[in-house]
Write a structure and sequence with these properties.
Blueprint: H1 4-12, E1 16-20, E2 23-26, H2 27-42, E3 52-56, H3 61-72, E4 76-79, H4 86-96, E5 100-103, H5 109-118, E6 122-124, E7 146-151, E8 161-165, H6 166-180, E9 187-190, H7 197-210, E10 213-216, H8 222-230, E11 236-239, H9 241-252, H10 256-267, E12 271-274, H11 281-291, E13 296-301, E14 305-309, E15 323-324, E16 329-333, E17 346-352, E18 359-360, H12 364-369, E19 371-372, E20 375-385, E21 388-394, E22 399-402, E23 405-408, H13 409-416, E24 422-432, E25 436-445, H14 453-460, E26 472-475, H15 489-497
Parallel strand pairs: 1-10, 3-4, 3-5, 5-6, 9-10, 11-12, 12-13, 25-26
Antiparallel strand pairs: 1-2, 7-8, 8-18, 13-14, 14-15, 16-17, 17-20, 19-20, 20-21, 22-23, 24-25
Helix pairs in contact: 1-7, 2-3, 4-5, 6-7, 8-10, 9-11
Length: 500
Amino acid sequence: MDLPIISRARRHGGAPAVEDHEGTWSYGELLAASAGIAEQLLGAAADLAEARVGLAIPAGGLHVAAQWGIWRAGGVVVPLSQAATAAELEQFLADVRPACILATGAPRPEVVAAAGSLGIPIVHLARETLPAARGLVLPAIAAGRRAMILCTSGTTSRPKGVVSTHAGLSAQITSLIEAWRWSAADRIPLFLPLYHIHGIVNVMSSCLWAGGRLDAFSRFDAAAILDRVAAGRYTLFMAVPTIYGRLVEAIAGLPDDARQAAVAGFSALRLAVSGSAALPASLHARWHQLTGQQLLERYGMTEIGMALSHPYDGERRAGTVGVPLPGVEVRLVDDAGGVVSGTDASGEIQVRGPGVFLEYWGQPEATRDSFTEGWFRTGDVAVLERGQYRILGRRSVDIIKSGGYKLSALEIEAALLDHPAIRGCAVVGVPDDEWGEAVAVAAVLEPGETLDAQTLRGWCRERLSPYKIPRRVVVVDSLPQNALGKTSKPAVRALFTGGT
């Protein structure tokens, strides 16, 4: 029996599925290519029996064919970060021990080095030399089998391998299909990393499940994307806040005719989604003013897929992430373990539903400790305000306990991003004898700007409560990042504490 995503691809047959730098791939071509890759991986075996297979192929038809091929052979897909160092990759690969790594062209030196140190073979694939399927019988894959292992960002501890089943991924995809009304008429660009749930599930898998068409880019290319938006090529758009900010700047720099065409293209979208980081209210407003689009925000994480989303029809309130998605249960739990009832009281987000992950690879204790009576403990803190959830941040790194108050680092960051001199920032709590924790900010400035702590505090007094005003400020050239390209709060805290 075929996996659901394969069964659905068969229905779409000769329809175009993916366009990349090599041209267009139909659904039928993806199916044929994935069957050939599956047979190559199997060799004389009848089933890979959940052997792990690394995937280091940029976005495009070949990536999809390889992912489907691994699944059809009975293997577990292990996407590899395109941003991780050799040491980080080696640590992750040593944990999951893939049988091989599928790559194309010249793999990143970091991948080659990490694979070489562990003796993991790299199998090179190219569209023009893909193995032809011989029509062998491929294994039947039960829905409960392991499908994918994604590396967490490791915000508070060593990164872990998050294991999702085929049933779990299907539940995540179908929830988004229903909530965001995907159809075969949809067209979307894909420039997000394919080692993160945002690109893998929200964009690539949802689009292909629905029978839509992907425009695959190996990286974010503002000029090329704006050209295609202006040409009316897309119906949906999904990106992180940083990209929306870059697009606002890029559109402002276009000649009048090109700017008007780009704005018209974005205005015509049926849906534009922002996620993976908090969207500043100021950027939410700027995007709406520019395009007429109210960005839909959502909340999710590697372990659960998407859990919360603004409604497709209804209020998309800046600073909130909406309500539970179809098939997802959400509750807030306070520090004493009690379920928070009513509104305006904060608690840890806990999630239950068919899309929740199976386990942390090789870490049964961490898996067990992450659940309470079947509810996954996200470690994120939120409050329910007027029917929609607002994220306050990670319990460990974004909730600052200062002077008896619990402060949201994300809320303070959103306010600071309105300062004309600040391009980016990260707020953390650092030990303080008087306050317990003091609010500290590391800021990246706009070119040619200067900023000192006294000036920033003066500006903040008009916008923030006194206990939220940063007491320590450092200007940096860039914010430290983890393997997934997100700001590393522990590394930011080390800027103030002298830790590592």
